[in-house]
Write a structure and sequence with these properties.
The chain is globular, with a radius of gyration of 18 Å. It has one domain (2-137). The chain has helices spanning 2-9, 24-28, 42-51, 59-64, 93-104, 116-125; strands at residues 15-17, 75-81, 86-91, 135-137. It has six helices and four strands; from the N terminus they run αβαααββααβ. It has 165 residues and is of the alpha+beta class. The chain has a two-stranded antiparallel sheet. It has a two-stranded antiparallel ribbon with strand order 2-3.
Length: 165
């Protein structure tokens, strides 16, 4: 669980807000959904999602509405039911709808699939944040950040994530 939490809240692309810039929506959207064990292929990704009830795949929705417990995030939808069969497919409706809405605003909070390789990559690229600045990003051991805030005029963007390079 510690590694899942680490990967949901730690990534070079995620902003960190100091008190002057922090709002609930910014804090809630400073996390990522990841496909647990997805780096080992689609079958292992399915196993990871099933065993953990989608805890890693629906994390952003949980942050936006913390009353959505992870174990209820996986909804079964009847596709075709007869008296003798009940064919159902799994779906994370709330998470999918939120991702669609955020994508329309240019915000994509889907991280790379989770696994040991991703733990290593994030650990190597997220060493520290600067002491100064109200919107900061992790920097690697060389002091380089993968992102920086877009500050139009004197106000920070809603996401704090640089989308244009």
């Amino acid at each position: 669980m510690v590694l899942i939490t680490f990967l949901q809240h730690t990534d070079p692309l995620l902003p960190h807000y100091r008190a002057e810039e922090f709002t609930f929506p910014r804090g809630a959207l400073s996390t990522l959904d990841r496909n647990l064990l997805g780096d080992l292929g689609s079958f292992m990704g399915w196993i990871g999602a099933t065993v953990t009830h989608g805890i890693s795949e629906t994390h952003v929705a949980h942050h936006v509405s913390s009353k959505i417990p992870h174990y209820n995030a996986w909804v079964f939808i009847s596709v075709h039911s007869t008296r003798f069969t009940d064919q159902r497919t799994s779906s994370w409706e709330a998470s999918a709808a939120l991702k669609k809405r955020l994508a329309a605003s240019g915000l994509f909070l889907e991280g790379r699939p989770s696994g040991w390789a991703e733990v290593y990559r994030v650990f190597r690229n997220c060493k520290f944040v600067e002491d100064e600045g109200n919107i900061v990003f992790y920097k690697n051991a060389n002091g380089l950040a993968a992102s920086r805030p877009i500050i139009p005029g004197d106000a920070a963007s809603d996401s704090g994530i640089e989308l244009e390079k």
